[in-house]
User: Fold this.
Amino acid sequence: MSLIHYYGGKMIEIKGLSFGYRKKGKLFQNLSLDIKPGRISGLLGKNGAGKTTLLKIICGLLFPHSGECKVFGVDSYRRCPESLGEIFFIPEEFYLPSITPKEYINAFAPFYGRFDIVKFNEYLKTFEIPLGVRLTSMSYGQKKKFLLAFGLATACKILLLDEPTNGLDIPSKSQFRKTLASAVTDDRVILVSTHQVRDMENLLDSIIILDNGEIIFQQEMDSILSKLSVKLASDPSYIEDVIYFEKTLGGYAVLTENRGEEDTKIDLELLFNAIINNKERLYEIFSKEVLAHEN
Amino acid sequence: MKTKHLDFLRLFNLIKIEIITNYRTLLLGAGAITGVLLFLSLATVRSSFSWNFHDTFYPFVLFFVGYIFTSTAFKELHQYPRNYSYLTLPASILEKFLTKFLLTSAGFIIITLIGYFVFSILAAVLTNLVFGRSFPLFDPFNSDVWTVIKVYFITQSIFLFGSVYFKSHSLLKVLLSSFLFSLFISLLFLLTFKIVFHSYSMYELNFSVDRYEFYQMESLGRAIATVSKAIFHYMLAPYFWVLTFLRLKETEV
Assistant:
């Protein structure tokens, strides 16, 4: 029986998690999070908010001080091989040994039971990764794409990416977005921690915002689009229901409540700043939906 | 065999990773050591020392190279971001521990026995060709060799623990810790000796101990020696293996 069936589909479950670093003090206190599969979730937050730390806790590189972080029902700190076999973590900085891609596959692929060599070769082709050179001779971007190709080919149920677009050139970013979008399946969690929100626009299906060790916002993109809209204006004071605005070239970018069910595009950077600066107003808007559901 | 914590296929795959990722360095090191030993065998073939060559250099290779090799066993744990990929590799802590333990103990012993034997054949052929003199072959089945191996097998466990415990310079830190520990034990014995023989002056010529007291002390000494030997042979290595395993289990990045 696979781990997923065993745990009834709940892949990552974080409850009452507390964690801190010795020198910096408490980072998370009583943090709870449930990440749903079948979508790409973006984990956003300021520097030091704890995005990378949270990813490390999920894959068992750091241990919670209290509370729990379970992956397929098993505490992540136990680093159980069955759950590790279902997680692939690509950190911002990573290590690749001084061997060829072929040797890497020979050494590491056997740890992932569903590793698909055909798909791996397809990804390598898409990413234009040279096969004959050692991994250490590749550029940072090539290494990252190699690791991403490997991670996707493992068919792991949980894919954790920390700043995946850092170091990628413009064509690679586009390839990355297309490849990641095609890798979404109903039983897969893809969690992307990033600062580069512009690189992730149109790719994320849900947004999780972490601030001061707390999840301050977690919404599906569809819900965000139906409730908020972005307008460009020369003077924001003439616009109704303004939540937040920022000066841009030639005017103001204004985030407003979407009352008319307008079909708009959301600027993630504006949304992030709005949540950081005016979260009460956003809670008010999004709680209407919760209340409507409850009624 | 496959249990929750031990799957022989995964263990085999972990060993394969070690070989694939390290074989170039290992071959380079083995080549360098063989070169130095060949040079030394050629330099000493004319002297009578050549007949004791293997008694000196086999233990040297086993201990010196073995301790260095063991001290770097868990280098992945202390190198960022290498530790990320090592700790998230889907294998149990027991399998990760066993891989390092097997490679640095049994694996290293077998490789040095075979490698050193091959070197001794090369040295014998070379010295005969160059100087027309015979050079002794290394006998891997000699009982002295196995006594040395036994001591290595036990003591390397301390260096294995050092490699998982210390973030850097683990070899030097283990040597320093061992020296300080020996110093502490020596001082403890000295103190005990002082307490037992406090009634005798150091400069007293007529140093006599009561016969009954002497037998009592002798049997106590023998008991201490037996216990110490038992601790060394049967408890020291398992103790450090358990510590290594626990430390590995608790390692965070």
Confidence is low (pLDDT under 50) at residues 290-295 of chain A. Residues 228 and 258 of chain A are 4 Å apart (CA to CA). Residues 279-294 of chain A form the longest helix (16 residues). Chain A has eleven helices and 13 strands.
